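Retro notes
What went well: the complex prediction finally ran end to end.
Inputs used:
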Amino acid sequence: MNILIANLGSTSFKYRLFRMEAGGAEVVAKGGYERVEDHAQVISDALDNLQNDGIINSPDEIDAVGFKTVLGKNLSGCVTADQQTIDALEGFAEVAPAHNPPYANGIRQFTKALPKAQLVALFETAFYQWIPEASINYAIPKAWREIGIRRYGFHGASHKFIAERSAELLGREDVAEAARRLYLDGPADFASAPLRIVSCHLGGSSSVTGIRNGVAIGTSMGFSPQSGLPQNNRVGDLDSGALPYAMRKLGISLEEAERQLTKEGGLQGLSGVSNDIRDISEAAEAGNSDARLTLDTLIHSIRHWIGAYMLELGGIDALVFTAGIGENNRDLREAVCRGLDGFGIRIDPEKNQACRAREADISADASTAKIFVIPANEELILAREVYRKLS
Ligand code: ADP
């Protein structure tokens, strides 16, 4: 089965073509376009390129297209990408303005460009469908809840992969298989001790998720991608009282406050240096105290959420680091794990320093919990879910 995974931004289009079989997945082509003004044109160009390169003989050979959609109004899961999906994305366009409109548009374009292909959307919120209700509510008036304000969670594709892969690494094939089949069968029951994972997706945007037996029990991201840990340029969690106070004191409009919280907040806003951890770390080493404080704030926030889920899970079998920062930033990993021996989490400094952008167990022999680095591969996760849905 040929599955094209479409990654759509407001001015970008990237794709990977997977050849999927029961035994595995192979990337047979990839490409992308930046500074896109006409998405229909670049989609058509990409399909031409695939034919010119001899990857496919005709666009009809693309069996399915997968979309990593973010947030739908009254819609989640792994679903056929149709008009209902477009409506759900547009219904929450203002909650995820960088993500929802390009995907709604992209689904429309692919419906026209590949009329015979099956289009599938995997919502980032899908992984959080089974979170207990008590932990998705905000204490807000009923009318606010009725317009859909609650915690949703994001990075679902990434954390689901961690749920599958960490169970495999821990030799729990029963849990791994249940995690793989989660969107088809729902949560499974296990007689044996529950497998308890805390997954840290630390990248351009970041979140921490607690996972029991392959199913998310809670996540740091809430209603919008503006929540949880400090992000690249986005604020993360903020007391709702701060917004009206800042607007009045600084004399700024709601639109300007929103702009500042999405573009000038996060690691960028706090450090005043950069939104990239590499630059911030360099500045901190050179003695910049704001940069040092930014790193400490991020580490504090990661530990805060790890602690929350360790308590809810009643302990931890594996702590996992993934995405750009989690895979590469060895000092941050060590700082996150500092002083957690009493909870059975002990990092091996040498193994940690030796591990960069590859899968590894970096826990010390005396650690009762494993500490894993697992590279993220969201396109692969998407291809697998589309394949599972259609097979
Ligand atoms: P996105 O969330 O946009 O997909 P990534 O997961 O690639 O982004 O994460 C981006 C972040 O990862 C950057 O801010 C950078 O700080 C960090 N990062 C990426 N590569 C490295 C590296 N080689 N060393 C240290 N940090 C890195």
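What we learned: The mean pLDDT is 96.
What to try next: split runs per interface for comparison.
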